Amino acid sequence: MKHKAVFLDRDDTLIEDPGYINHPSQVQLLPGAASSLAQLRRIGYRLVVVSNQSGVARGIVSEEGLAQIHHTLEKLLADEGAYLDAIYYCPFHPEGSIPKYRMESELRKPAPGMLLKAAKELDIDLSQSWMVGDSYRDVEAGKRAGCKTILINNPVKPVVKNPADPEPDRQAVNIREAVNIIRMFDQHHDSKPAAEHLSVQDISEVQVDMQNPKQTIAAETSRTTANAVKSQPVETAEPVREYPTANQTPQQERPPAAQRKPSARAETPLPRDTENLLNEVLIHLKAAYKLGRDDDFSIWMILAGACQIVAVGCLVVSFWFFLDSTRSAEHILIMIGFAAVLQLMTLTFFLMRNRN
Fold first, then answer.
1. Total tally of structural domains belonging to the chain
2. For residue 246, is it within any domain?
3. The whole model's pTM is what?
């Protein structure tokens, strides 16, 4: 069975790009890069870096130096629990100063050579894979290889689109958002087949508990399993114990399916539009539960909480100064000013958390 993968550009996607990196000390991970890659591995993706490195052809860095840079990148990721399956790079450029590397190459993006090579060597299904990068060269390489694509378009370094550039499937401001897009795509497509097996009657009986979607999902999964068994031929199906309905006590059991009269409700199915709507509700409930379960730890929330506590403390102190006749109005205003500044910092940290 072939594997799915996420192909990743290197500079300004995983690490900061100060120009041409020619020494391992210049390698700095972007915020959230390691944790984002770890999430992708947990949901079953292989991780492959594909990078144009014309600095080799221009004489800025040697292939040996590039190997040390990539070793440092892998070590920084491993220190935070993230691991790459492979790194592919293209050292060639038609305007290079080193004759050995002065050439056009099918490996150089926007050509898909590196992706095709990785797919062959690592047994990757390109149709189930993604290309993530910060340039339209990455998008074109991914599309030519048959992958879905995400363009990282950071407002700090906006990407300029030429008329001939292809449209990406999605856009993100950083690697974190790109990973969230991939997760949501997978969750939606994983949930869809399960919903398609539910009959109209099953969907009409769903009792959605918005406070506890986990119980709703578990109940509907049990109902789907029971229906799958009932759909087998009568002579081979095992008797299925069903949950009591509103008209039965827990001790009562319904008669076997072969002895029951056809349900009047089954003879009057819901309209097709209603069926589709209920299917979508169930899919989004499952996706919401999974996404909530996987929420990331955020340092911004810790900072926001700390500032909020100190701000409340400043207000308490200002009230105490107000009751103390030895304190001047200036002391009270200073403490209120501190509280106001800290409250603004709290809002700023909270907004930063949402942005990341």
1. 3
2. no
3. 0.56
